[in-house]
Design a protein that fits this description.
Layout: H1 10-14, H2 18-29, H3 35-40, E1 49-53, H4 60-73, E2 78-84, E3 110-116, H5 128-137, E4 142-146, E5 163-168, H6 175-179, H7 183-186, E6 189-192, H8 200-215, E7 223-226, H9 235-248, H10 252-271, H11 277-287, H12 294-302
Helix pairs in contact: 2-5, 4-9
């Protein structure tokens, strides 16, 4: 790694040097030569990763802002990764969502990094596993990962986080039924945000009834916490629920599952490294003048 762009960055990173952390994340994000060696040399870290996910408009960013305030007030260092949706055409993203956390950008105990999802279907960045490990090595007490607003099948955050917080609002109603196949199963903690709205108590009651069967197969009861993130109400109860989940720790079965999910993601990424959507579009465009068979086209890449 002597000639690598990572040279001289590891020790400052482990000391919590913010500029070195930013540089390392950029290098990992862009897959520069030496990335694999750099990641393999990172020491193991017990820093907990907390995933914040849920439908669009549920107030995830405002809730993250409240969590930052709580932990910073308690003297903790907090790292935050915020993943924003990308354009399906140029993979760029408008990272304007961060305005809700603007007071923390220059705070010495807080580091916030916005990432574009770059078309990833799971509501996360393609290199989120690697970037999260870089964050964990930088000496934070907590690492928060806020995902793109997700649907029922886009639940990759569960394979990344030690504690997954699913945020919903009282108006969700029948949407909860459609979420059962995905988000309902991955939550360690449910947050009913904007709980000052009408029918919030009835919604919480119905949600707890819906979750009841899951209690039998879980190591712990899934907490349902009411918050009004805009006023930072209920944040103390939420942090208590998160702490309870983290203190229980992962069973060997869940830990194996988490690591298998990460390994699958990384192996899949390596296997697909020499392919890009742009290359596929170009190859297809050149064949469209003739009779095009999708399955014959795909076979040449699968057998390669």
């Amino acid at each position: 790694m002597s000639s690598s762009l990572y040279t001289g960055l590891q020790q400052p990173l482990l000391s919590g040097h913010i500029k070195s952390l930013s540089r390392c994340i950029s290098l990992v994000e862009n897959e520069v030569p030496g990335t694999a060696d750099f990641l393999e040399a990172l020491p193991a870290s017990a820093t907990p990763v907390i995933g914040i996910t849920g439908p669009p408009g549920a107030g995830k960013s405002t809730l993250v802002d409240g969590l930052i305030h709580h932990w910073v007030t308690a003297g903790k260092k907090v790292g935050v990764l915020c993943v924003d949706p990308s354009s399906p055409f140029n993979l760029g993203a408008l990272l304007g969502d961060r305005i809700r956390m603007s007071e923390w950008y220059n705070h010495p105990q807080v580091f916030i990094r916005s990432l574009a999802s770059r078309g990833s279907l799971g509501g996360l960045h393609p290199h989120i596993v690697e970037i999260t490990d870089v964050m964990k090595a930088a000496g934070f007490d907590y690492v928060l990962v806020e995902t793109v607003g997700v649907g029922q099948s886009e639940v990759e955050i569960a394979g990344l986080a030690d504690c997954t917080v699913v945020v919903v609002v009282p108006e969700a109603g029948d949407e909860i039924q459609t979420m059962k196949a995905g988000l309902m199963e991955i939550a360690d903690v449910f947050v009913v945000n904007k709980a000052d709205r009408p029918d919030a108590d009835m919604f919480v009651k119905n949600l707890r009834q819906m979750l009841a069967p899951a209690f039998m197969t879980r190591q712990h009861e899934i907490a349902v916490v009411k918050t009004v993130a805009q006023q930072r109400e209920g944040i103390d109860a939420l942090t208590t629920a998160i702490t309870d989940v983290l203190q229980l720790g992962a069973t060997n079965e869940r830990r194996s599952w988490l690591l298998a999910e990460k390994a699958w993601h990384l192996i899949q990424q390596q296997r697909m490294k020499n392919l890009s959507k742009a290359q596929l579009k170009q190859a297809i465009a050149e064949l469209l003048h003739s009779e095009f068979n999708l399955y014959q086209f795909v076979r040449q890449y699968v057998q390669a």
